Amino acid sequence: MTDMLSHTARDTSRGPVPGTAPRPRRGTPLPYALLVPAVLALAVALGYPLVRQVVLSMQDFGLAQQFGRPPEFVGAENYRQLVADGYLWRVTLRSIAFCLVNAVLTMAIGVGLALLMRHMSRGVRLLVQTGLLLAWAMPVVASLTVWQWLFDTQYGVVNYVLTGLGLDYEGHGWLLRPLSFFFVATVIVVWMSVPFVAFTVYAALTQLPEELVEAAEIDGAGATSRFRHVVLPTIRPVLLVVGLLQVIWDLRVFTQIYILQEAGGSARDTNLLGTYIYRLGIGGGEFGMSAAVAIFMLALTVVLTAPYVRAMLRQEGET
């Protein structure tokens, strides 16, 4: 017995057994070397603009600097002025509320459409997917032009339909009041974002094992219980990623708000952080202050997305 063990030990010390895959050697530099080009590209593409933005936020950079005058370094003075600016905090609260409302509505409608598509016939599902794809692929400016005509004060279809239903909406200006302005903006932003959520969640639902759903149904679980205890845990990683992206996109929304403001909305009463940064820098020539607000917006994005990132890391640790 002792001879057999010593013979086996000598065999294993010589190398791997023929026919078995060799163990990967630890500490090999090849994976890190392959990552170097991507890391350098990210550092150049993202690192330099971020550093330049931070430096600009600590300078007095206005129209004079555009014509060659050297900028004056003011340190944290721009940030001190922003903290004392009550209008910035109103814009921030307005942006957070708009972001959360749009993200929740987009996720709810998108997930609902994905669940409905799972139970549709092939022809109906193809028709719905084609409509979602066309809405998603439509250029932003072109779609906003259509929405402006729909909510137009004199010739808008929305006012015409509501007036035909007996409501007093003849000549109603949707963009003149902040509440109705953001209602129109929410409709447009959600309409543009729902297709992405619906397609992504539907793709995740196609990977759901039917055996699990059938077993839960045999055990007597209703539709709500099957969704909570079978479907939702399976697609939870996808929902976390999509939710994270929606919060980021809805917080930095710019084009829809800016074009609606140009169409008749009051900029001061409807500014979000994106349009406020633009009007402060391009419109007002205060590029240093505009950069400071941009850094503040970046920090706010990190704070709002931190719970999603923690949930994603926790989910990855459990798998």
From TrEMBL:
Location (main, coarse): membrane
Residues passing through the membrane, by range: 32-51, 95-116, 128-150, 181-205, 230-249, 287-309
Residue ranges with Low complexity bias: 14-25
Domain (ABC transmembrane type-1) ranges: 92-308
CDD domains: TM_PBP2 (cd06261)
Region called Disordered, residue ranges: 1-25
Localisation: Cell membrane
Membrane topology per record: Multi-pass membrane protein
Keywords: Cell membrane, Membrane, Transmembrane, Transmembrane helix, Transport
Family matches, as PROSITE patterns: ABC_TM1
Any Pfam family the entry gives: BPD_transp_1
Cross-referenced PANTHER family: BLL4140 PROTEIN, DIACETYLCHITOBIOSE UPTAKE SYSTEM PERMEASE PROTEIN DASB
Record family assignment: Belongs to the binding-protein-dependent transport system permease family.
Protein name, UniProt field: Sugar ABC transporter permease
Origin species: Nocardioides pini
